[in-house]
Amino acid sequence: MKILLNGIQSNLRFSSAHIIPGHESCGFIHGHSYFVDVEIEGERAGQFDFVVDFKDVKKYTKAICDELDHRLLIPVYNNLIDFKDFDKKKDSIFDLQKQKSVYFKIDGKGYTIPAIDCVFLPLPYTSAEELATFFAKTLAKKLSEKYDNLTYVAVCVNEGIGQGAEYREDL
Q: What is the pTM for the complete model shown?
């Protein structure tokens, strides 16, 4: 059986700025009002014969949304971003979060941004596709800690009404 959560109606949304280095139009800092749809399939189980408790799915998904809300999303593992005082091969993303300000260049353009205004993601891009993958994998991992009856978790990250990307994580 499947359960579905509509991101708009369930208030699973966030607003963030991002940049897709090297892209003709998305290579500039710009933002979206995102909403997140969730689909989960599994067997009904437990005391109430639920696939999964909607409350849990909303809580876990909302926590990810809240972490990204009103921040600049930075894809740390993008090859076109050169960070000052940070080596992608040996340093931890947590080292970036501890800095007061983060300094990086993209195509010779320099940026200095307070680290508190950023979310450093272990991704090559902050596209809808990569964000959907990030959400699905994170949500699947969290739900698997409590539920052993799930078949998959699919998440669609929408950059507005009518355009989004969906990723399915099989369990």
A: 0.95
